[in-house]
Design goal:
- This protein is α/β, with parallel strands linked by helices.
- Among the domains are: about 5-210, no CATH class; about 405-665, no CATH class.
- It has 30 helices and 17 strands.
- The strands form five sheets. It has a seven-stranded mixed beta sheet with strand order 3-4-5-6-7-15-14.
- The protein is globular and about 80 Å long.
- The two termini are about 50 Å apart.
- Mean pLDDT is about 90; it is low at about 260-275.
Length: about 750
């Protein structure tokens, strides 16, 4: 193993990210799915259809092995010819909906990786076989039978690789694969190979949106790593080589193009089907069951191996109190990777646990939380995301009336209004402007109206998901997902996690946060405190997009803004966040106590701020019509008038107010922190923020001139990456409006 040149692995992975054809995809996968039309399986229950599809898929796809592979497992992706492109388009347009009745996994899940490493593939299959022996319910028996078939399909897939490795003279790989098929992994590298193989199957052949939490690997794998070192079976350099190749493999499996905002001509974003430009999340650090921090030599090694030029895996480092002082060298390395614009985010473990405790979780169920998707919170492997697990309309014969069916097939309840919080806020202001008692109005009326609307929506949302959950539980074994096959609770109960999970959650995003806060500040300042404008005049100026109202626009823009660390802006930001979180947690409480259902309070907008902003008029903060809203937890572009310190000081007051997530893009000119002294300064700055209770940070260290040059000459800058929301994007692959938004973060209006 030590003889391998890891630079080949890294170069290949980097090249796959920046030079892979935009429309490259895995045609083998598409052909198997297309063949399904002719299969005589329409009447089979969904679990058995899924098992049949995956068995066929894994028996037919290619099993390439390259001379420099340490870990094996690759999907074959290439640019499609005319016939293949037509097949792709036809299938995506015509059959994707039908396929979702079989491939129910939407991604955004975490498997019980610790159990997988503990018992292996054969162990999971044995647990399912024992469940089948005990089961009498016909649907549960079908559930177990299909699960066993899927476990076997993955084992057979690994054995195909083992046979091919033997043919190539790679006996070491062949032996490793046979070991992980027949028993549990007994070495660090065996375990890493097993984890990668299951990840590959998930992301290449199972789900239509392969966003996956790949586990707390420094915690799960440390006992094997330590044992191998002590027995002389492994050196640190050998472990490092395996981790580097593990990181490389994630990037070989990636598509090109923008993950969320693009156009249909980019096959990565065309229905996001059969391409793999979705992030996978690797968790490091955090807490043990007893509350002690997870920080060991393997933590340091995984951090050391982060390659800033990669998009995957997204490393989520769970910061525990005092970490930057206890482990200064690891923290410094982490900051060095951040300044390289690595695909990396840092979360404050204690803050997240604190919020779960406020929701009502017992302490023993808080320690294993994780972030998935674009910084979305999840309480752990005993839980299920309501939107990400099979929904009731996907379960055959579950409805008791047509009225019930219609009621349950509504769209995702993301926001009350089409344009989110800003639209709600403007509706409240319009109502207040129409009242006769203008002289008696105050900012309290704005807050009352805004949170009344939010309260009504939260009530509606919780009632809907409670009913959805109760319907799912009528047929808990009626559907099977690939994730169920790798989740201990689903195997134990013979039921999909969407029904049997201990906890069920949905996100409640406080979207376009800074736009709303800044607008409230402007109304409070100009209408109620200084009384230089009436509410009606302010709203009229917004309706006219401030045309002919330049004096009003100037007044709006000189008001305090969230992010500049003023007393007024901090006070309003904290009030908005605190009241919203309190409302969500209090209203979730009876549902949580009764059925484990709750809403996760998070400041979250992903890239909706672009789409929603493009559809909405001007707002009192001085934002013009059809321009982006603020994104996630970040202040509006141009609002951080007092630099990074001012922004962090603005964020700290809201970080302890019941949030589970709040993405902050920190964009810095890389020359600000050059050299050893610059790295020391940055380490101290972020260390101070997190030791003070900061919730989350992710960094893009570039320059505006870099971005402008990339836009003018994209072919020469295909390696330029920026943090978007919960993932990294290659700048030249982003849509023009998302490029504009990123450049706005760096100071270009």
């Amino acid at each position: 193993m030590c003889g391998f040149d890891l630079s080949k692995n890294v170069d290949e992975a980097r090249d796959a990210l920046i030079n892979k054809p935009l429309k490259a995809t895995a045609i083998e996968r598409i052909r198997v799915c297309d063949d399904m039309e002719s299969w005589d399986c329409a009447e089979l229950p969904q679990p058995l259809r899924l098992a049949r599809l995956l068995t066929a898929m894994l028996s037919r796809v290619s099993i390439p092995i390259e001379p420099h592979d340490l870990l094996v497992g690759r999907s074959v992706e290439r640019e499609l010819n005319e016939e293949e492109e037509a097949l792709y388009r036809s299938f995506a347009a015509g059959n994707a909906k039908e396929m979702r009745h079989v491939l129910l996994d939407s991604g955004h899940v975490a498997y019980d990786w610790e159990l997988l490493v503990k018992v292996g593939l054969q162990g999971l299959k044995s647990l399912a076989q024992e469940g089948l022996k005990q089961a009498s319910d016909p649907e549960k028996r079908v559930f177990y039978e299909a699960m066993i078939q899927i476990h076997q399909a993955v084992q057979d897939y690994a054995l195909r690789y083992a046979e091919h490795a033997n043919q190539l003279g790679r006996a070491d790989i062949a032996e490793r694969l046979r070991r992980i098929v027949s028993g549990r992994p007994e070495s660090f590298i065996d375990a890493l190979q097993l984890l990668w193989l299951v990840t590959l199957v998930t992301c290449s052949y199972v789900t239509l949106n392969p966003t996956l939490v790949v586990g707390r690997l420094d915690r799960i794998l440390y006992p094997l790593y330590k044992s191998d070192l002590e027995a002389g079976r492994l050196t640190r350099e050998q472990a490092r080589a395996a981790i580097v190749d593990y990181y490389c493999k994630h990037n070989l499996n990636m598509g090109r193009g923008e993950h969320q905002v693009g156009d249909w001509t980019n096959s990565t974003t065309f229905l996001r089907v059969f391409n793999f430009d979705s992030p996978q999340y690797l968790l490091l650090g955090g807490s043990e069951r007893d509350g002690s921090p997870v920080e060991n030599e393997l933590t340091a090694l995984f951090v050391e191996c982060i390659e800033p030029s990669f998009k995957n895996p997204v490393v989520i480092f769970r910061f525990t109190e005092g970490f930057s002082k206890r482990q200064p060298s690891v923290w410094r390395t982490l900051m060095e990777k951040a300044l390289g614009s690595a695909s990396l985010m840092i979360y404050h473990d204690g803050r997240v646990i604190e919020t779960y405790r406020r929701i009502g979780f017992p302490l023993e169920d808080c320690w294993d939380h994780y972030q998935f998707g674009c910084n979305w919170p999840n309480p752990g492997i005993h839980s299920a995301w309501m939107q990400g697990t099979p929904k009731s309309h996907q379960i055959k014969g579950i409805y008791q009336s047509e009225e019930e069916r219609v009621a349950m097939t509504r769209s995702y309840l993301r926001t009350r209004s089409a344009c989110g919080w800003p639209e709600d806020m403007m509706a409240v202001l319009e109502d207040l402007a129409g009242r006769e008692d203008q002289e008696s109005l105050s900012i309290e009326d704005v807050y009352h109206g805004f949170f009344t609307r939010m309260s009504e929506f939260i009530d509606q949302k919780l009632a809907f998901y409670s009913r959805e959950l109760s319907i799912r539980r009528r047929k808990p074994s009626g559907v099977l997902t690939f994730a169920d096959c790798f989740t201990g609770m689903a195997i134990e109960h013979g039921e999909t996690m969407g029904a049997c999970g201990k906890y069920h959650f949905e996100l409640q995003a406080f979207n376009m946060f800074a736009t709303v806060v800044d607008s409230i500040i402007a109304v409070d300042t100009l209408v109620f405190q200084e009384r230089v404008l009436t509410l009606g005049k302010l709203l009229e100026a917004c309706k006219r997009n401030f045309e002919g109202c330049e004096d009003v626009l100037a007044l709006c823009r000189r008001c305090d803004k969230f992010g500049q660390d003023s007393e007024l802006s901090n006070r309003h930001a904290r009030r908005v966040c605190m009241e919203a979180s309190r409302l969500v947690i209090e209203k979730s409480s009876p549902y949580f106590k009764r059925e484990g259902l709750f809403l996760s309070p998070c400041i979250q907008s992903d890239t909706w701020h672009l789409r929603m902003g493009a559809e909405f008029g001007a707002t009192p903060d001085g934002r013009l019509a059809h321009t982006p809203f603020s994104q996630n937890c970040r202040p509006s572009n141009g609002s951080c008038r007092n630099g990074l310190t001012g922004m962090f000081n603005s964020l700290l007051p809201i970080c302890g107010d019941g949030l589970l997530s709040g993405t902050v893009n920190v964009d810095v000119e890389r020359n600000m922190f050059e050299g050893e002294s610059g790295l020391d300064l940055f380490s101290s700055l972020l260390g101070t923020y997190f030791e003070g209770g900061g919730l989350q940070v992710q960094v893009s260290a570039l320059s505006l001139s870099d971005l402008e040059a990339a836009r003018q000459d994209p072919d020469r800058h295909r390696d330029l990456r920026v943090r978007i929301t919960g993932y990294s994007g290659i700048f030249v692959d982003l849509s023009p409006r998302l490029q504009d938004d990123v450049m706005g973060r760096f100071g270009k209006s």
